[in-house]
Amino acid sequence: MPIGWPAAAAGTVQAAAGEPGLEAFGGDPWWITLIKALVIFVFLMVCVLMMIMADRKVMGRMQQRHGPNRFGPLGLLQSLADGVKLSLKEDVIPRNVDRLVYIAAPMIAAVPAFIAFSIIPVGPEVSMFGVTTPLQLTDLPIAALLVLATAAVGVYGIVLGGWASQSPYALLGGLRASAQVISYEIAMGLSFVAVFMFSGTLTTSGIVEAQQSLWFAVLLLPSFLIYLVTMIGETNRLPFDLAEGEGEIVGGFMTEYGSMKFTMFFLAEYVNMVTVAAVSVTFFLGGWLAPPPITAFWPGANEGWWPVLWWLLKFMAVMFLFIWVRGSVPRIRYDQLMQLGWKLLIPVQLVWITAVAVLKLMVNEGAPLGATAGAGAGFAVVSIAAFAGYARSARRARAAEEARRAEEARRIHADPAAGGFPVPPQSAPHYGSSVPAEPPRNPAPAPAGEKRGEREEVTGA
Questions:
Q1: CB hemisphere CA count around 132 (13 angstroms)
Q2: Claim to verify: residue 124 and residue 269 sit in the same structural domain
Q3: In angstroms, rounded to a whole number, what is the distance separating the alpha carbons of residues 11 and 17?
């Protein structure tokens, strides 16, 4: 290691810490930091309870049925009752599991989701008990990467839980979750790249400030739409809940878990939903900034505690999207899940990022407007041609699959035993028809008046 490495590293750290926009962090009294951390924890727990209740209520209305309506007024305490029930259930550990990993896996899945929320800004600087502080626990020069890091670590809990359970269903669920998170995390990370290009920073507070004039959801619409898909896949929610498909692998990685350990996995899933929804608000929907129509006639809409209200409204809209998709879209097959991630989302993101980088560079270098517009039109033409080719290939694949299924149906119609298990003949006794029965191996003496060897007739009546 070079002799001057410690000094160089220290200088790099100081330069990163001195990045513009981070001066307001790191100087709060310890009790202000403690209050912020406690508020974040309480907010996440309340969001989990309310989201479970909203899941049931909203989907109940979408499916023309009543949701919970017994515990508490309008069923509002149903989630709390379920939590109490799970905490009081007997904690059974299967005999042959790896006990240490089996117990640690739910905690590994839940803790990273709480950490990721610490860099989410929900408002500007306000006065809290006489101390001026930003409504954000902390911010980092690489705060945006913390979201991806915690998402990557959280999947270890799912994989280890499936492996430690010593169950084939749980192991399959863990393997599915690992492959799903890898494929969708790549597309999610690529959707952030365009945001970094336009904001010029990796700090979450800086990304929010960069959207003062126009939200990135409008300016970078393809990145926003792809992020919405990947955030649902990242949280194992319908239609991407292949890691816990009840009709295929019972309960997936949670099959052998019960009581509080099952609660921890359930908590991790819903806290992850809250975190990715908050990230979408921060990166694409302007964070705590008020919508443009409000700021047009209310100059103070982005001051004081009002921005918390704008953030909450955006956050609730994204959380409602989770429920809407779950109640509307059926579960897809696993091969469709992988094809969507690797063959569609990632290639589209790579082309889109290339186009954004080229156009951004041309604008920064002062290229003529005609040249910039021509480059944008060229990327648009290439993208449309690629989509047309992909759609044509998909139609051909669907036609070939339909032809194969029609041929298989024709063969089965001609021969019921073709391509499957043998089918009993329709003249068997249990179908109600009469067939001659086999003679007994040790026939009894025939009664008087009957000939030996004469076969009886058996009916299905």
A1: 5
A2: yes
A3: 10
